[in-house]
Specification:
Layout lengths: L5 E8 L9 E8 L4 E5 L6 H9 L6 E6 L2 E2 L10 E4 L11 H11 L4 H14 L15 H13 L5 E5 L7 H18 L3 E5 L2 H7 L2 E6 L2 E6 L1 H6 L4 H6 L4 E9 L2 E4 L3 E4 L9 E6 L5 E2 L9 E11 L3 E8 L2 E8 L11 E5 L6 E3 L5
Parallel strand pairs: 3-8, 3-9, 6-7, 7-8
Antiparallel strand pairs: 1-2, 1-4, 4-5, 9-10, 11-12, 11-14, 12-13, 14-20, 15-19, 16-17, 16-19, 17-18
The structure holds adenosine-5'-diphosphate and magnesium ion.
C-alpha cells in the first residue's frame, strides 16, 4: 500500500560548472489530490525542482517517486505531466481548440474523443464557445485558462504550475487564484505550483513548502507556516512580526532585555537563548483580551490608519512593538498617548531554528 502519490527524496541538482547545488537535499511528499505550493524568493530553486519532476532535467542525485515507482528513467513525454510553465507558451497563431488538442493528437487519440475532451476542458476553465478563436485574440486571463485547459486535457498524472499568475494584473490575479483552486479541487488532480508570492501560496495551497537557497526550510499547512514558523527565514519571509531575543528562565517564560518577562508557547530548555515572535495582529489593547500576563505599557510613537486596522508603533521599555488593532475597538489610541498592549502566551511563538 502506497500512502503518497508523489515522493521526493534527498533531491539534489548541481548545474554543470556551478559552485554549489541549486537544489540541496530536498525531501517532501504529497498525498493524492493535494495542492502544494513551493514558495521562496527568486533563485531559491523552485523551478529547478519542478523541471526535475517534469523530467525536463535530470537530478544530480536523489529520487522522485510516483505511486512508489522511481520515475528517473522515464522520459518527459511518457511522464504524463500537465505543465503550465512560462517556457511552454501557447502557439499564438493557432486556435484555442488546436492548442488544447495538441497533446491528444500527439498521443494518437481518436478525432471524436478529442472533440469531446477539448470541449470538456474548455468548459472546465470557462472558455466555452471560444475554441475557434486565435490565442492572440484572447485576454491575458483567458490565455492563462487556455494553458490550464491544455495541461488538464491529457488527464495528467500531476499538474505542475510555475508562477502561473505572475503575468496578470492584480485584480485578475485574485480571480484566477480562486479559479485555479476550484478547477484543481473539481478535477482532484494532485498539483504543485511555484510562487514567490506568500499571499498566493497561503490562499491557494493545502500545504506550503518554503524554500531558501536550495534548501527546504519548512513544510506545513498555511496556518502552521504562518503561526508556527520554525526557522528565522520562514518567520521573516511570511508576514510581519515582532521579534525578540530572550533567555528562558523557567518553562514557557523568557526574560527579554528592555521589555521584561514574556510568556511563550513551545518547549525550550531552561537557561537557553531563544528567539520569539509575535504577529502584529495578535497584540491587543489590554482589557480587550488576554489575562494578567504579557502586558506591556508604552507610548504610541506612530500610527498608520489602514481602514479596517490601525498599525501602531509603541515604545515599550527599550523595545518597539508593532501592533495591528481593529478600528472597531471603540476609543482608538492617539499619537503620544500611553497604552497597554497584551498578548496571549499561545500567540508568542518560539522559533526553533533561530540563527545564532
Ligand atoms: N540552466 C541553468 N544553468 C545554470 N544555473 C541555473 C540554470 N537554471 C537555474 N540556475 C540557477 O539555479 C538557481 C535556482 O534557479 P531556479 O530554480 O530558476 O530558481 P527559482 O525558480 O526559485 O527562481 C539560481 O541560482 C539559478 O541561477
Ligand atoms: Mg522560477
Amino acid at each position: 500500500m502506497v500512502d503518497h502519490h508523489v515522493e521526493i527524496e534527498q533531491l539534489v541538482k548541481t548545474y554543470p560548472g556551478a559552485q554549489k547545488p541549486s537544489v540541496d537535499r530536498v525531501s517532501f511528499s504529497l498525498p493524492r489530490g493535494e495542492m502544494l505550493a513551493l514558495l521562496g524568493p527568486s533563485g531559491c530553486g523552485k523551478t529547478t525542482i519542478l523541471r526535475m519532476i517534469a523530467g525536463l532535467i535530470a537530478p544530480t542525485s536523489g529520487a522522485i517517486r510516483i505511486d512508489g515507482r522511481d520515475v528517473s528513467a522515464i522520459p518527459v513525454h511518457k511522464r504524463n505531466m500537465g505543465m503550465v510553465f512560462q517556457s511552454y507558451a501557447l502557439f499564438p497563431h493557432m486556435t484555442v481548440a488546436r492548442n488544447v488538442s495538441f497533446g491528444l493528437e500527439m498521443r494518437k487519440v481518436g478525432k471524436t474523443e478529442i472533440e469531446e475532451r477539448v470541449k470538456k476542458a474548455l468548459d472546465l476553465v470557462k472558455l466555452t464557445g471560444l475554441g475557434e478563436r486565435k490565442v492572440s485574440q484572447l485576454s491575458g486571463g483567458q490565455q492563462q485558462r487556455a494553458a490550464i485547459a491544455r495541461s488538464l486535457v491529457i488527464e495528467p498524472e500531476l499538474l505542475l504550475l510555475d508562477e502561473p499568475l505572475s503575468n496578470l494584473d492584480a485584480k485578475l490575479r485574485d480571480e484566477m487564484r480562486d479559479e485555479i483552486r476550484e478547477i484543481q479541487a473539481r478535477t482532484g488532480v494532485t498539483a504543485i505550483f511555484v510562487t514567490h508570492d506568500q499571499d498566493e501560496a497561503l490562499s491557494m495551497a493545502d500545504r506550503l513548502a518554503v524554500m531558501s537557497n536550495g534548501r527546504l526550510e519548512q513544510i506545513g499547512t498555511p496556518r502552521e507556516i504562518f503561526d508556527r514558523p520554525q526557522t528565522d527565514f520562514v518567520a521573516t519571509f511570511i508576514g510581519a512580526g515582532n521579534f525578540f531575543s530572550g533567555k528562558v528562565r523557567e518553562p514557557g517564560v523568557a526574560e527579554v532585555e528592555g521589555l521584561g518577562e514574556l510568556r511563550f508557547s513551545g518547549e525550550a530548555p531552561t537557561g537557553s537563548s531563544v528567539k520569539l515572535m509575535v504577529r502584529p495582529h495578535r497584540l491587543v489593547l489590554d482589557g480587550t483580551g488576554a489575562a494578567g500576563v504579557n502586558r506591556f505599557s508604552g507610548t504610541v510613537e506612530h500610527i498608520v490608519y489602514r481602514g479596517q486596522t490601525l498599525t501602531l508603533t509603541v515604545r515599550c521599555g527599550t523595545q518597539r512593538l508593532q501592533a495591528d488593532l481593529p478600528t472597531h475597538a471603540g476609543v482608538l489610541p492617539e499619537k503620544g498617548g500611553e497604552i497597554t498592549l497584551a498578548v496571549a502566551p499561545e500567540d508568542v511563538t518560539f522559533i526553533e531554528k533561530a540563527a545564532a
